[in-house]
Structure formats: structure tokens, C-alpha cells
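Page 47, continued from p. 46.
Same chain as before, 199 aa.
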Amino acid sequence: MQAFKTIALSLLSIFILFGCAPAPYQKIGKPGTLLDRDRYSVLSPEGEDWHVVSTHDRGKTIFMKKLPSPTHTLYAMISREEMTTQFDTPEKFLTVMKALTEMMDPKRFTFLEQKTVLDDKFGLFSVRISHRVEDHGPRSADVPYLIMTTLMYCFLDQDDARIMFVLTYSERGKAGELDGNFEESARKFFDGVKVKRRN
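Result:
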């Protein structure tokens, strides 16, 4: 069980990351730019003013969109995580992923919507997580909280079950700032991720 909690905490730290402002970053020349990594490739999100965030972790790629409002943030990320825990069935993998929501700080986050289900988009051991929460952590002069919407896929490498990929698309802001096409934009980002198979 301790190993399960370790994985859930790792995912929780990724979720909370999207309330921060990482730097430095570099502007992407054009939407749909291919970034080739060791174990995967990813297309940069569609739309203008996307940047790739500098990170020393070669298994992680973070994109952020430059927006005019200081309360509005939009991020997309793919992360490759090494694990020691093995899963016998997809259902056991799903149980661990569901533990994520149980470990979030209820003083900061109030859930409006939450769903964690098996989704075979990336194989049998593939879970889709969707969250919509009130985030009471940031301080804004005119609102008591911001709305944060997050879609994630967590899945095991089909060639190496010790590797888990976490795909995240997350937006936070005031209610009137949020993208009405959020889910479609997230889907296009996820479709642009390709995990390299071993020969």
C-alpha cells in the first residue's frame, strides 16, 4: 500500500504544478511542432503563444500558453515515471489512480466534478482522469477562488510495465476566462503523443 501512495503522491504533485508559474521557457515557432524524446514524441498544442518550459528531466515535457490575465494559466505536459510497483490487472491500476483524489488537500480544493475510469486509448493499463475543482489556494483581488479543469491519462508502457506515462492538460482561471473548447483542445494534444515501441 505504501508503494501505491507513493505513486498517487507523484501524480498529485503533477496536478498541483499547474497552479504555479514555471520558468524559464522558450516560444514554439508554430503549432504542431514535433518534439522528439527518448521514449516518446509529442506535438506542441494547437494555437498561438505556446512555450516549452525548460526542465532538466529528460522524461518530462511541459508546455505553457502565454495569456494576458495573471489569473489565467494553461498547461500541457507529458511525463515518464519509473515505478517499482507491478500491477496484475487493469482494475488494480485503476484503484491506485483513484487514490489520487483521496490525497488532495480538501482545504484548498473543492471538487465540482471528478471521474476516473479505465480507457483503452493507450492500452489495457490506461486510465482517464477528469477533474473540475474550485482552487482556493491562489489569492485574487476580486474572486474567492479560481476554477481549475484538468484532464489526464495515466498508462503503462506496453513494452515495459515499470514505466508509466502521465499526460496532463490543465487550465485554471476565473469562470469567464476559461476555454469553451477545453476538452477538444485536450483531445488533440493527447492524440499528438506517440510512445515509441521497441523493435
